[in-house]
Amino acid sequence: MIYRLLQIIINIGIHLYYREIRINNAKNLELITKKPTIIIANHPNTIMDAFVIGTICKSPVYFMTKATVFTSPLKLRLLKSIKMIPINRNFEKS
Length: 94
What we know:
With 94 residues, this protein is mainly alpha-helical. 44% of the residues lie in helices and 9% in strands. It contains four helices and two strands.
């Protein structure tokens, strides 16, 4: 429920902020509702990528998020309710 509410609010904000949103290969977005798909954003605009992707996709989108953000039970519950998945990034120094 929180996810859908945020999707509506962010969708309104994006359409007020941006004059135009162009989608290349829009036919590929139709596949998302038919089978599992991984969408990879380059992050030139940091969080705006996630906002735009989340609003243009009809089916729910799950977002990978650094596990360090999920620091308390309240944050864990809230972030999972908006479809965020904790990911541990393990970098070895050479």
